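Quick one: structure tokens for this chain, please?
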Amino acid sequence: MTLSAMCVAGARPNFLKIGPLMDAFARLSSVSASLVHTGQHYDRNMSESFFDELGIPDPVVNLGVGSGTHAAQTAAIIERFEPVVLKYRPDVVIVVGDVNSTIACGMVAAKLGIRLAHVEAGLRSFDRTMPEEINRVLTDAIADLLFCSEQSGVDNLKTEGVSAEKIHLVGNVMIDSLVRHRDKAEKSTVLNRLDLKAGGYAVLTLHRPSNVDELGVFGGVLDALDVIQREIPIVFPVHPRTRASMESSSLGERIAKMPGLRVIDPVGYLDFMRLMMSARAVLTDSGGVQEETTFLGIPCLTLRENTERPVTVEMGTNTIVGRNPDKIVAAFRKISGDEKLESKIPPLWDGHAAERIASIVAACRTSSSKLLL
């Protein structure tokens, strides 16, 4: 009997994880997989271009929830996802990452008695002020299958009392995407289009509410960037949330006076990979970028006080610097020197995580999934 799996994606980081999964399921005759797009990210450069570049199949439905407060967005996803589940009646719902789509769709599956799988389970920043941390903890609490990208995830789940038989260390599906599309990314012409030379610039990403919604914090980060951009150009693909904060305050005018801080619109996956793999260093508050730079061996400064991906610090090129301007500048000067940082690629970050997940899901029997109508 064919097992029916419904995969859910809603935001840019999700697409990098869902693409390899859909491909892995497509190679299994024992699993029929469908994709639901919640529409949490709806801008073309944050959503549609990823489907094109990564070869992700069209979703069976796009819930089109758009933006909103956490409560409004989560509620809209729940309300719109439930009828889809009732219509298609999957044996397992697979959610990825830690966005609102993750917990919202996970709750629908759990309350309908459908087996729930969480990809990228167990990651913890131990900072409950982060909305993503709440989403992670709650999703893991209701999931039946927990797929971990690093050993810390396994350890955290066991500490929280999760049964060992539910936990699977499988590797990192985001790295699957990077491995699969690296050759294409190397052919990107983005450096020529932006008149950049490999090793002659830095990349910045900034989008977390704690960094861009609090103008005092954002301003402090800009203090550091103002110094750094005088020493090396910084390419800054601006997230819609960050742009809104810039345009609604005086920070936009301040940034406009920094000629070395090159603000551009969000770019597609292949262009961003090319920018990152050729950068002198990367400054970010993104979890995924911490992982990608670790795999690529690119120095990374994380502009947060913590990380839910400690393996990127223990084995990789990631340094947690917080948001103190002096510390950011000092750390940047240290990592952007001529001395190459020593790093290792974490276990199972080999491009085959999705295959491991698909194999485990395929072993699930439909009898373990009971739809409550």
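The two ends are 22 Å apart (CA to CA).
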